[in-house]
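Obj.: predict assembly geometry.
Materials: sequence records (below).
Method: joint structure prediction, all chains together.
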Amino acid sequence: MTLPTASEKSRIPEASCTSSNEQINPFYSPFFSNLTSQQQQQLFLTQLLLSGATCPPLNPLTNALQFLLHNSALFLQQQQQQQTNFPPCPIPPFIDYNNKSKESISSINLKHKNDLNTSVPLDCSLSDTNEKSTIDDDDNSPTIATTLATLPSNNSEETTTVDGINLEEIKKFAKAFKLRRLALGLTQTQVGQALSVTRGPAYSQSAICRFEKLDITPKSASKIKPVLEKWMREAELKYGDRLKNGPTNLQDLVSDLNTKKRKRRTSFTPQALEKLNDAFELNTHPSGTDMSTIAQELNYDREVIRVWFCNKRQALKNSAKKSKSNQINDDNESTSSSLMDDKLSDTTNYAKLQHDEILS
DNA sequence: ATGCATGAGGT
DNA sequence: CCTCATGCATA
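Observations (raw structure tokens):
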């Protein structure tokens, strides 16, 4: 049999975060010339974001026009990169904003009075089950509704909960968050950049992407959730009055440039991947000597091979968790989780391997 | 969106 | 050396 691969995962087409090709303000070119294209892009996006260029026009009509002109290209570009079965531009930003329940907006304001200047609470205890997410999705989206409807009543006690984490809650928020983000015309990258500039923990585009598609463990999801919630809250307000947004602190970003270089990402040949996958099916925890052998055979660094196995295990584990949480209702044990139970959760085996390693 | 890399915390 | 959470880089 074969293990689940990336290509086999179901994928929901959604907004890509491909960079825009907009021109860089000449004013900043001295800075940009020393940066990589990626860094340039990120810097630029930060500038764009902080300057308020992407703010939805909650204020004057002129702002609305400016906003449209400035961002329509970007927004359209994003939409056009959608896969075929994704409806184009589902939510016009303005209309959506006004249509969003007054309840959500008012609750945002109420909440804001209380924690305007507090730091992000990092507790994962999810006490917000009662306090509800401020950006609650008022729609009864078929997917969620269906999911909820199909949940068995006999298991309702723990169906939506894994390790004390309410999966439904997170799922719901992830969906709402994505909708809001798209409605604001923001990419995952932009949100990530915005987070990195504001106080509190930041998350990258990757993290946001994984959160939105729930390609993360419940634990991390519950950690990221409050951060995104808070950002969303403040974003709504900030867009309301963006005057207070001053110039960016370029220094912070530039100073990061002196950090050491990251190893170039290894690209395995299909043949190598085939062999690696074969080896993985036989043994998810090859011994040190095993990995050395594999590394020699395939002519890759031993360390690279080791990391590959680590990542492979992690991927398998996460996908198993996901499928578990997605099919709580049907009581059949999935093949993937049984594989995981057999090979990954066998700590005895792992300990034994380590022991053998020491002896040899 | 996803694959490989990194680093923290554990054994 | 491992797992786990994350991020950079890239397909």
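Conclusions so far: The radius of gyration of chain A is 23 Å.
To do: check interface contacts against the pulldown list.
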